[in-house]
């Protein structure tokens, strides 16, 4: 006989979260600890009575921070219903009320009382002056907040939402809470920062003044040869990059799918390059080739007897670097689209007397048009968001992403201007993102129906294949030269001046010494290298977990507001790293959440920057699992958590591995958000390299980049091996669940 | 130790005015009431989109009724999710977990029902024995044939001794020969264990072969409930007559009613059959192809327009004054040529009167 959970009077999950709440309130330090909680110095340093480390209950016991007292009520109330059945209306009511009140009060007091007492004038007017203050919340507050959140979701579930499924409701609540905290809250904070006057008030005039700045929207370059606004620069560059990467991506996709080219696997292997290449490395290689003392530049200048120029710095350099960097992304999109065109359509057209060129022009091309638009928008977004290449190659050609950076770190230090620039950038990328999802989303013609389609794609028509192969060959060769340059540049003494081969840069960066204390990491790069590995390794599993749970909710559950939920979770894909960086600085520099300068803020920024990767990997593989697998597990008495753990997760092992490795690798190559968030204690490899570049120490920068590329190559290679193994281990089960 | 025996804890299912509405206005099931008796095999039969699968999924708890109550045994389960219902389901795709072997698949549900590991393994083994798959426990589902996978799915559902066992088109992924065998096995297990089974199919022959009762559904509601024989011999309307076995629907005139018997006229032809409450006037006559008699004395005139030899019998399309008719004849040695004029009559039993419409 089935045990019926809805009538049970013991609720282990509920008890767990009530106890967790009490632990947060009574045991853990309430406020953030300077040295981090894992230093454990606080344990011997006056805990639990020292007010710096005291749990909330001890603070109250000493008559401090009395505004925390109301939290006791929602901590006690759930005990009263803990032995009632779920179907009892009181059960749901008490949980919802205590969860909502507790969570709400936590947030309200967090925002209401800051480091200078009341955060808002009207609060002071209402309650009189407060001669107390509080800093950022710590692990105790965090645990208590989680406890209240999940009490609330359990109450909602008990009321019958999503068939009373506690796991699903809690997962939705959890994802919404963290996305709201770490995506929407910082963006909103940034939005308000754009309106803040120097006196701390709010004014639309401030925003307008900064928004309608000539440096942003000026059109001088069209009229009298002056400089155009940053926004126009970015837009122009992004459109060029979008068009070029799409065209090149299509060329490569055609070579791989529609030509007799023999080394198709090689072309496919090239797609892994942008994943493992830190974004500015291509810029560095271009400097080695075309910079003032670049080999090609010098060679051409010598041959024609002219002075070598700095032509690379500015639009041409950024353009070449970005096209090199993002063409593989367009290729990845387009190869799926070109392969997705059902061969039988093309074969049908052939039997209807169209020749190869006519088939391509009248059937193939129209069918892949939405894919082309998609690739264009991706290239557009990537170019807009790119930070590393413009920083290295920009010269006088200012773009939004770098301007934001200089507004924050430069002499001008103008948070308001950074916020306005970030908003403009966000506007562009969100526009493209919106177009991609809502305009293209409904227009895809390519469907892989799963029905046997035994046809073969026809080859390209002659008049197309010749130019296509020529372009692909040239660009492919160029890419190889550029990557060769990276490798070569890392072993040259001083580029353009002293071309003797040397391992000097590697030694400087990665030397180790053995002495009586063991291994000494004496190289200058080790610090940032280990930090990078550590932070990436912590972020990767969390990213994968958040991504997969979100993917599960999106593919397997239906609930009110699901579309908004999906939009919200995928949104961070369209938020450029620089925007994330700025908004995190603005939002997490002050209580209630104080994170700047910690490693945690880096981890968090990676989780939300890379979450869409995990979501996509999860969605792609989950939609291949027949829904009847879940349903049969449910009818066999498993609840949805047990189903998720025992059926879905084991079947997703390849997707989990992929999400893990890609979020790891992306965290290692990230620069745009990172550069705002690093601190002396937590420096990352990419920001360290950028620092070397700014000191014109190209040799070390390139050597370090090369080492990073090989580390990531190893990670991706290991993934390929592992995923290959899992497939064999599972044998084929294509006929099950079909 | 006593070997565990898989038994049944069968219970009745009842639907009271149940409706299911999707997206605010699409009615998948419209105000259906139905009593499934204990230990009987009920089949939900109907064309695709008629709501039969939705009915099944509402019993399982995979869909929730928008209105009305559903009861299993003496318990109202309307609001309970699938996890909490004592119901198991065999899916069209079998839905075997590809990462678990056969024994793990079969004992999967037992783990959640409070059985100890050893006990669960024993029950699962007994379940596999019941479906004739002893010794297959270590295989992966992908190493089994379609028929074997199907039996594993049945065993997995059976070992939980559910109050109701559900089948969602269980035979549609099997080839024709295997289908007959598997459906006989399902029927045998159901009768031996006295299970309450609800079975969904769109194949009327399958429905006729396995069911105690058939529920014919049309447009989200029930068209007719009855034993296979009742549905075949006494369909209530044109839809049922046509859906359960092909039927010729002929316009006719009831000329006289005597007691429960009606005399009907089709052209010059006269025939007497049960009146089924109809009065005189125009009506429809449903006659199975095998009940149409060619070269009958006194029959109405018609002409053979198509003659097809299908091995065991001859199939004819004949054209009468009111339109085409479909007839079959066992006599393959003396086929009627196309163009031959025939007189058509009806067999003494079989044809039924339907209200006009």
Descriptive account of the structure:
The complex is a heterodimer of chains A (738) and B (357). With 738 residues, chain A is an all-alpha fold. Chain A has helices at residues 12-27, 41-44, 56-61, 72-81, 89-112, 121-127, 139-158, 166-193, 204-211, 214-217, 220-223, 230-258, 264-270, 273-276, 281-290, 295-304, 315-340, 343-351, 356-385, 388-393, 400-409, 415-440, 462-489, 504-510, 526-556, 562-571, 577-587, 599-622, 627-635, 640-651, 653-669, 674-677, 685-694, 698-730, and strands at 113-114, 117-118, 492-494, 498-501, 512-515, 518-521. Chain A has 3 domains: 7-159, no CATH class; 216-447 and 464-489, MetI-like fold, CATH 1.10.3720; 533-698, MetI-like (MetI-like fold, Orthogonal Bundle). In chain A, the strands form 3 sheets. In chain A, strands 1-2 form a two-stranded antiparallel sheet. Chain A has a two-stranded antiparallel sheet with strand order 3-4. In chain A, helix 12 packs across helix 23 (462-489). Mean pLDDT of chain A is 83; it is low at 447-452 and 727-738. Chain B is elongated and about 75 Å long. With 357 residues, chain B is α+β, with helices and mostly antiparallel strands. Chain B has 2 domains: 13-238, Rossmann fold (3-Layer(aba) Sandwich); 247-354, OB fold (Dihydrolipoamide Acetyltransferase, E2P). The A-B interface holds A 1-6, 160, 163-165, 626, 628-629, 631-640, 642, 646-647, 650-651, 730-733, 735-738 and B 9, 60-62, 64, 79-89, 91-99, 108-109, 112-114, 140-143, 146, 149, 153, 156-157, 160, 166, 173.
């Amino acid at each position: 006989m089935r045990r019926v959970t809805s009538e049970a009077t013991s609720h282990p999950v509920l008890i767990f979260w009530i106890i967790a709440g009490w632990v947060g309130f009574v045991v853990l330090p309430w406020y953030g600890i300077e040295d981090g909680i894992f230093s454990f110095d606080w344990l011997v340093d006056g805990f639990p009575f020292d007010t710096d480390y005291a749990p909330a209950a001890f603070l109250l016991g000493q008559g401090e921070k009395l505004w925390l007292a109301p939290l006791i009520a929602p901590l006690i109330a759930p005990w009263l219903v803990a032995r009632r059945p779920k179907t009892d209306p009181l059960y749901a009511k008490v949980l919802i009320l205590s969860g909502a009140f507790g969570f709400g009060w936590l947030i309200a007091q967090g925002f209401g009382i800051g480091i200078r007492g009341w955060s808002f004038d009207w609060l002071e007017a209402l309650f009189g002056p407060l001669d107390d203050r509080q800093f950022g919340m710590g692990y105790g507050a965090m645990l208590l907040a989680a406890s209240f959140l999940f009490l609330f979701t359990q109450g909602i579930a008990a009321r019958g939402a999503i068939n009373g499924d506690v796991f699903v409701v809690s997962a939705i609540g959890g994802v919404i809470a963290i996305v709201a905290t770490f995506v929407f809250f910082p963006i909103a904070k940034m939005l308000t920062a754009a309106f803040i006057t120097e006196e701390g008030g709010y004014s639309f005039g401030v925003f307008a003044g900064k928004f309608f700045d000539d440096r942003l929207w000026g059109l001088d370059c069209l009229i009298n040869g002056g400089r155009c606004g940053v926004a126009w620069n970015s837009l122009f560059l992004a459109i060029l990059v979008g068009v070029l990467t799409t065209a090149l991506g299509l060329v490569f996709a055609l070579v791989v799918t529609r030509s007799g080219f023999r080394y198709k696997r090689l072309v496919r292997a090239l797609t892994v390059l942008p994943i493992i290449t830190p974004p500015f490395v291509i810029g560095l290689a271009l400097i080695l080739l075309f910079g003032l003392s670049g080999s090609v530049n010098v060679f051409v200048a010598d041959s024609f007897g002219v002075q070598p120029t700095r032509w690379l710095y500015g639009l041409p350099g950024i353009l070449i670097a970005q096209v090199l960097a993002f063409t593989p992304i367009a290729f990845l999109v387009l190869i799926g689209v070109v392969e997705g065109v059902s061969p039988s359509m093309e074969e049908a057209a052939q039997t209807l007397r169209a020749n190869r060129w006519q088939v391509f022009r009248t059937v193939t091309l129209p069918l892949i048009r939405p894919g082309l638009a998609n690739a264009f928008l991706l290239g557009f977004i990537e170019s807009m968001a790119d930070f590393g290449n413009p920083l290295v190659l920009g010269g006088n050609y200012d773009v939004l992403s770098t301007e934001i950076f200089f507004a924050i770190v430069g002499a001008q230090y103008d948070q308001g201007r950074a916020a306005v620039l970030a908003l403009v950038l966000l506007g562009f990328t969100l526009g493209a993102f919106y177009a991609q999802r809502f305009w293209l989303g409904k227009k895809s013609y390519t469907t892989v129906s799963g029905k046997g389609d035994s046809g073969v794609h026809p080859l390209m028509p002659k008049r197309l294949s010749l130019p296509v192969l020529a372009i692909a060959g040239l660009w492919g060769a160029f890419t190889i030269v550029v990557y060769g340059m990276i490798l070569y540049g890392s072993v040259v003494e001083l580029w353009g001046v002293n071309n003797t081969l040397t391992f000097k840069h590697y030694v400087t960066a990665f030397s180790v010494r053995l002495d009586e204390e063991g291994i000494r990491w004496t190289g200058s790069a080790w610090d940032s290298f280990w930090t990078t590995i550590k932070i990436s390794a912590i972020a990767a599993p969390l990213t994968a977990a958040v991504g997969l749970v979100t993917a599960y909710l999106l593919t397997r559950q239906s609930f009110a507001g699901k579309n908004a939920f999906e939009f919200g979770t995928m949104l961070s894909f369209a938020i450029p790293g620089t925007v994330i960086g700025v908004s995190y600085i603005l939002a997490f520099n002050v209580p209630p959440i104080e994170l700047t300068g910690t490693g945690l803020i880096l981890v968090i920024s990676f989780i939300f920057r890379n979450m869409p990767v995990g979501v996509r990997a999860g969605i792609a593989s989950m939609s291949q699992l027949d829904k009847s697998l879940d349903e049969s597990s449910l009818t066999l008495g498993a609840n949805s958590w047990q189903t998720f753990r025992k059926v879905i997760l084991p079947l997703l092992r390849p997707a989990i591995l992929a999400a893990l490795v890609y979020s790891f690798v992306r965290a290692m190559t990230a620069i745009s958000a990172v550069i705002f968030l690093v601190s002396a204690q937590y420096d990352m490899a990419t920001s360290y390299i950028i620092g070397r570049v700014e000191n014109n120490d190209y040799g070390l920068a390139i050597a370090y980049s090369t080492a990073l590329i090989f580390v990531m190559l190893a990670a991706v290679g290991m993934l390929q091996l592992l995923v290959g193994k899992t497939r064999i281990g599972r044998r084929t089960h294509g006929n099950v669940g079909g | 130790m006593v070997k565990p025996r898989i038994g049944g804890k069968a219970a009745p299912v009842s639907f009271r005015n149940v409706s299911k509405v999707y997206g605010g206005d699409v009615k998948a099931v419209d105000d259906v009431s139905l009593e499934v008796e204990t230990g009987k095999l009920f089949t939900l039969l109907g064309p695709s989109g008629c709501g039969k699968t939705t009915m099944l999924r509402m019993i399982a708890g995979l869909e929730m009724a928008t209105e009305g109550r559903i009861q299993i045994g003496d318990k109202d389960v309307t609001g309970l999710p699938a996890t909490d219902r004592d119901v198991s389901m065999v899916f069209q795709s079998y839905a075997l977990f590809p990462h678990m072997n056969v024994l793990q698949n079969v004992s999967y549900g037992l783990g959640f029902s409070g059985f100890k590991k050893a006990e669960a393994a024993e029950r699962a083994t007994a379940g596999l024995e019941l479906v004739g798959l002893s010794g297959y426990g270590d295989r992966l589902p992908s190493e089994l044939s379609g028929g074997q996978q199907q039996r594993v799915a049945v065993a997995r559902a059976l070992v939980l001794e559910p109050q109701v066992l559900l089948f969602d088109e269980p035979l549609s992924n099997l080839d024709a020969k295997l289908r007959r065998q598997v459906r006989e096995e399902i029927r045998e297990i159901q009768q031996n264990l006295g299970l309450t089974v609800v079975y969904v199919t769109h194949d009327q022959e399958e429905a006729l072969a396995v069911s105690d009762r058939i529920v014919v559904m049309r447009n989200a509601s029930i068209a007719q409930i009855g034993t296979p024989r009742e549905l075949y011999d006494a369909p209530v309307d044109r839809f049922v007559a046509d859906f359960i076995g092909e039927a010729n629907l002929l316009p006719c005139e009831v000329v006289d009613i005597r007691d429960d018997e009606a005399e009907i006229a089709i052209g010059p032809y006269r025939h007497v059959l049960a009146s089924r409450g109809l009065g005189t006037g125009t009506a429809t006559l449903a006659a199975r192809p095998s009940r149409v008699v060619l070269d009958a004395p006194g029959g109405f005139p018609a002409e053979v327009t198509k003659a097809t030899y299908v091995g065991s019998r001859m199939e004819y399309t004949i054209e009468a004054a009111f339109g085409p008719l479909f007839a079959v004849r066992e006599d393959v040695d003396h086929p009627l040529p196309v163009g031959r004029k025939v007189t058509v009559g009806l067999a003494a039993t079989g044809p039924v009167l339907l209200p006009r419409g």
